[in-house]
Design goal:
The chain has about 220 residues and is an alpha/beta fold. Helices cover about 45% and strands about 15% of the residues. It starts with 6 loop residues before the first strand and ends with a helix.
Length: about 220
C-alpha cells in the first residue's frame, strides 16, 4: 500500500464491452453528485496536444489552463476517466508517466496541483499485443491494474437485456405511469436477437427503441 499516490486502472478491449461502465460504477459507488469527469484522448494526437491538455505557455492562446486541470476541478470524488488513451502522442504519454509517479499535475505555468489519492481510469480499444508495442515499459509499470475485456457471450447479453428491460420499466413506472402493456418485459425480450450485437451500446439502443415502440402501441 502507498507505493503509488494515484490509483490507476488501464482497461483495454473492444468498443462497447463495458470499460467505461467500470468508471461509471466507481463514480456512483463513491457517491458523486457531479458529472463524471472525462477526457477523450482521441482529441490529443496532434503535435500540440500537450498544450491543449495542460495549457499553452504565457502569451499564447490557452495559456490560462488546460482540459486536465478543468476536469480535476470538476470531480467531486477524485475520479478522472481518460478514454482512448492509446491515441495520444509521446509527449502526453511522458507527461502521464510523471503524473502517475509523483501524484501531481503541472500546468504550462509550472503550477503544481496535488492529486494524491485520485483514481484515474484509462480506457483503450488497444489489443494486449499492441499495448506492449504502443505503451512504454516505464508507463506500463505505473498502472496499478491492467485489465482485458473480452466480448460478451450471447448468454451474457441475454442477462443484460433482462436487467436493462426491468430497469427501464421501473424508471418508466416511477417517472411516467404505472399503466404499462401486459407482458411488456417478455415481449421486448422476445424481439431482441442478441447474436446480432457485439457492441453493448448498440444493444442498449435496441432495447430502448423496442421499449418505446411497445409503449406507443
Amino acid at each position: 500500500m502507498g507505493e503509488h499516490k494515484i490509483l490507476s486502472l488501464f482497461l483495454m478491449g473492444d468498443s462497447g464491452v463495458g470499460k467505461t461502465e467500470v468508471a461509471r460504477a466507481i463514480h456512483r459507488a463513491l457517491g458523486s453528485h457531479a458529472k463524471l469527469a472525462k477526457i477523450n484522448f482521441g482529441n490529443y494526437s496532434s503535435h500540440d496536444a500537450l498544450n491543449s491538455l495542460i495549457g499553452s505557455p504565457l502569451g499564447y492562446i490557452g495559456s490560462d489552463g488546460g482540459e486536465l486541470l478543468k476536469r480535476v476541478c470538476e470531480s467531486d470524488v477524485g475520479l478522472i476517466l481518460i478514454d482512448e488513451f492509446e491515441k495520444a502522442n509521446n509527449a502526453v504519454f511522458n507527461y502521464f508517466l510523471d503524473v502517475l509517479e509523483n501524484g501531481k499535475i503541472v500546468n504550462s505555468q509550472a503550477d503544481e496541483y496535488d492529486i494524491n489519492g485520485y483514481i484515474i481510469v484509462f480506457t483503450s480499444n488497444i489489443t494486449k499485443e499492441n499495448f506492449k508495442n504502443k505503451i512504454s515499459p516505464e508507463l506500463r509499470s505505473r498502472f496499478d491494474y491492467k485489465g482485458i475485456f473480452n466480448l460478451l457471450t450471447d448468454e451474457d447479453k441475454k442477462k443484460f437485456v433482462h436487467f436493462r428491460v426491468n430497469q427501464i420499466i421501473s424508471k418508466y413506472k416511477e417517472a411516467v405511469s404505472s399503466d404499462i402493456p401486459d407482458k411488456l418485459h417478455d415481449n421486448i425480450v422476445s424481439k431482441i436477437d442478441v447474436s446480432k450485437y457485439k457492441n453493448m451500446r448498440d444493444l442498449n439502443k435496441k432495447i430502448k427503441d423496442t421499449f418505446v415502440a411497445f409503449i406507443q402501441l
